[in-house]
Specification:
The two termini are 24 Å apart. This protein folds into 2 domains: 177 residues, 3-Layer(aba) Sandwich (Rossmann fold), CATH 3.40.50; 77 residues, Alpha-Beta Plaits. It is globular and about 55 Å long. It is built from 9 helices and 12 strands. It has 262 residues and is α/β, with parallel strands linked by helices. Strand 3, helix 3 and strand 4 form a beta-alpha-beta unit. Helix 2 packs parallel to helix 9 and helix 4 packs across helix 5. The chain binds magnesium ion. Magnesium ion binds next to loops.
Length: 262
C-alpha cells in the first residue's frame, strides 16, 4: 500500500465518482463526524458521483439516500440498492417477491441452527431493517472471539449461504451479489456506464474484510489507516492508504483526491 502522496494527478483526474464503505470508513465507531460529512459535501460540490456501499440494511439506506448529498446506496453487501426518487426513495432488488420469501425461510433455518451451535450468538440490532440477509453481531455491542464467529460462518455455509464479515458483523445471504458486483451493477444501471468504465473510473474507499471484493475489482482503491488490521486477511489490499483512521482518514483521502484534480 502506498501513501496518498503518491496518487498521480492524471489518475485523480480520471475519477468520475467515489464509492465508499460506511462503518469504520466514513463513520468513526458509528459516528458521522463533522470532518467526514464535510468531505462528502466537498466531493459532491466537485461534481463527483457518490455511492455508499455497505453491509448495513436497506432500511438505513432509505434514510441515507433521502438525506445525504449522494447518488444512492448499495446496501446489504450489494444485494439491495436504494435511490432517491422525487420526494421519496426506491428499493431495487435483483430477485422477485416470491424468491425473496423462499430465501427468508431458508435464512430462518440458519438462525435456528446457529442458536444450537453457538448459543451465545446474538443477532445484530439492525436485522429488522434488512430484507436479503441475516446478520450476527461479532464486534459492535459484543466482542465475539474469532473461533466462535467461525462456527457461525460454518453453520451458515452448510446451509448453502454465502457469508461475509465486516469489523462489526457476520452476514449470511442467498443473494449472489457481493459489494463489488453490486456496486458495479448499481453504477451501470443508474448512469448507463459500461462495467469496464465503472472499474476504471470509480474510486473505492474501505476498511475491512467485506471490502475485499472491491479492493480486488476497482483500479483506484483507498484504505483508511485502520485497514492495516485486516491486510493479512484481504486477498488484494487497497493501492493507497491514509495516515488517519476512519472518518478522519476518509476526509484525508477526499482532500488528496480533490487537490490532485486541480
Ligand atoms: Mg467497514
Amino acid at each position: 500500500m502506498k501513501p496518498l502522496s503518491e496518487l498521480a494527478q492524471e489518475e485523480a483526474r480520471r475519477i468520475d465518482g467515489v464509492l465508499f464503505d460506511l462503518d469504520d470508513t466514513l463513520l468513526s465507531h458509528g459516528l458521522l463526524t463533522r470532518a467526514a460529512f464535510g468531505a462528502l459535501w466537498d466531493l459532491h460540490d466537485a461534481k463527483l458521483r457518490l455511492v455508499a456501499v455497505t453491509g448495513r440494511p436497506s432500511g438505513w439506506g432509505e434514510v441515507i439516500a433521502r438525506q445525504w448529498p449522494i447518488d444512492g446506496v448499495v446496501t446489504e453487501n450489494g444485494a439491495v440498492h436504494v435511490v432517491r426518487e422525487g420526494a421519496g426513495v426506491r428499493l431495487l432488488q435483483s430477485c422477485n417477491e416470491r424468491e425473496r420469501r423462499t430465501r427468508r425461510i431458508r435464512l430462518a433455518q440458519i438462525i435456528e441452527e446457529v442458536a444450537k451451535v453457538v448459543p451465545e450468538a446474538r443477532l445484530a440490532d439492525d436485522v429488522g431493517a434488512r430484507v436479503s440477509d441475516v446478520t450476527w453481531d461479532i464486534g459492535e455491542r459484543v466482542k465475539m472471539p474469532t473461533d466462535r464467529a467461525d462456527l457461525i460462518d460454518g453453520a451458515a455455509r452448510r446451509f448453502g449461504a454465502r457469508t461475509t464479515r465486516s469489523s462489526v458483523h457476520l452476514h449470511a445471504s442467498f443473494d449472489e451479489d457481493d459489494k463489488a458486483s453490486g456496486a458495479v451493477r448499481f453504477v451501470c444501471e443508474r448512469f448507463g456506464v459500461s462495467a469496464g468504465a465503472v472499474l476504471a473510473r470509480y474510486a473505492f474507499v474501505g476498511d475491512s474484510g467485506n471490502d475485499s471484493a472491491c479492493f480486488s475489482a476497482f483500479r483506484a482503491t483507498f484504505g483508511v489507516a485502520n485497514v492495516r488490521k485486516y491486510v493479512a486477511r484481504i486477498a488484494v489490499p487497497p493501492r493507497f492508504v491514509a495516515a488517519k483512521e476512519m472518518g478522519e482518514g476518509f476526509a484525508e483521502i477526499a482532500r488528496t483526491l480533490l487537490a490532485a484534480r486541480k
